[in-house]
Amino acid sequence: MVLADIVDFTNDGRSVTSSGVWSFRTNPAGIVENEVRQILLSNTLRISSVRNVRSFTFALIEPSLDTLAGVLSISAEFSDFNQERMSFLYGVAGTAGLTSLGVNFGIERTVKNAAVDTSIVLDVGAKGKFVENGPLGYGLAVKNFRIWSSDPQLANQATFGAGLCLDYDQMKFALDVIYGFNELWTILPGAQLNLEPVSLYVTIPVFYSPENDSILAIDAGGSFQIGNLNIQVSVFYPFSKKESPDFFKELSYDYQIDFRIGVRW
After folding, report:
1. Which of 13, 151, 156, 170 falls 20 to 30 Å from 2 in CA-CA distance?
2. Which residues 6+ apart lie within 8 Å of 191 measured at CB?
3. Structural domains of the chain, count
4. In whole angstroms, what is the distance from residue 265 CA to residue 263 CA?
5. What is the pTM for the complete model shown?
6. Which residue range is the domain that position 111 belongs to?
7. What is the CATH number of the domain that holds 220?
8. What are the residues facing 263 on neighbouring strands?
9. Quick check: 189 and 210 in contact, CB under 8 A?
10. How does DSSP assign the chain, residue by residue?
11. How many CA atoms are closer than 13 Å to the CA of 125, on its beta-carbon side?
């Protein structure tokens, strides 16, 4: 596993200490650690007995080299219940001393029962180490801050996260705490093992909100590197379900499967 293809903890926006190309989903600062140009493709299936969602993402990743790292992403989500979502995202990231800084700008369009809502979204993140060449690092992120929305109830909402990680040559341990605008707390411990050309990870997310009991889940997966091709598969399974104002959220479904491909070019 090369630095450009590090598997980030929890593939769909739940970890603040993510590194590598897919980290723009959570913490845009993490893409600084990517070293080569890549084309990314993902197909996510969220499945339940009453409804299903199919999500697709196409992204281009530019390494930092002597300037800034960049990402350009287009995503689409289609459901069985008259709701869909399209999003366009552009992000940049760079380094300042021991700290990486990143920002994403996005436009999101949601269609629900023929009603169309459009939002302008901002992500901001920081990631770094406390001591140069030391194992202990941190991550901070503000995700999905809606600068403007045609739906007044969505305006100025955001998700906040902070995390710590221990990063060794072949092992990585992380602990993140994330708070969402819907008063949902997420405590996310995780571990990752890198044994070239294979990388494996597992996290045990715990979700809590004042309105109901805690929800325990498991998120596990891995990747395999074949030349310039990186193949990743992960499964997210909540042991109980929770309805959310965002009908695309993982906890509304029985389980989620995510397939991802990265091609260096």
Report:
1. 13
2. 171, 172, 173, 174, 201, 202, 203
3. 1
4. 6
5. 0.88
6. 3-264
7. 2.40.160.40
8. 39, 229
9. no
10. --GGGPPPSSTTTT-SS--SGGGGGT-GGGGGG--S-EEEEEEEEEE-SS-EEEEEEEEEEE--TTS-EEEEEEEEEEESSSEEEEEEEEEEEEEETTEEEEEEEEEEEEEETTEEEEEEEEEEEEEEESSTT-SEEEEEEEEEEEEEESSTTTTT--EEEEEEEEE-SSEEEEEEEEE-TTS-EEEEEEEEEEETTEEEEEE--EEEETTEEEEEEEEEEEEEEETTEEEEEEEEEESS----SSTT-GGGSSEEEEEEEEEE-
11. 37
b/e map 39-63, b = 16+ CB within 10 Å: ebebebebeeeeeebebebebebbb
User: Of 57, 62, 53, 52, which Cα lies nearest the Cα of 25?
Assistant: 57
Residue identified by tokens 């299936």 is 45
> Taking a C-beta distance cutoff of 8 angstroms, is the pair 157, 146 a contact?
yes
- Is 139 in contact with 165 (CB distance < 8 Å)? yes
Q: Which two tokens stand for residue 174?
A: 């992380």
- Between CA 15 and CA 19, with CA 18 as vertex, the angle to 5 degrees is 175
What does the block give as tokens for 233?
């598969």
Parallel, antiparallel or unpaired: strands 69-79 and 229-238: unpaired
Which tokens in the block code for residue 113?
A: 């029962």
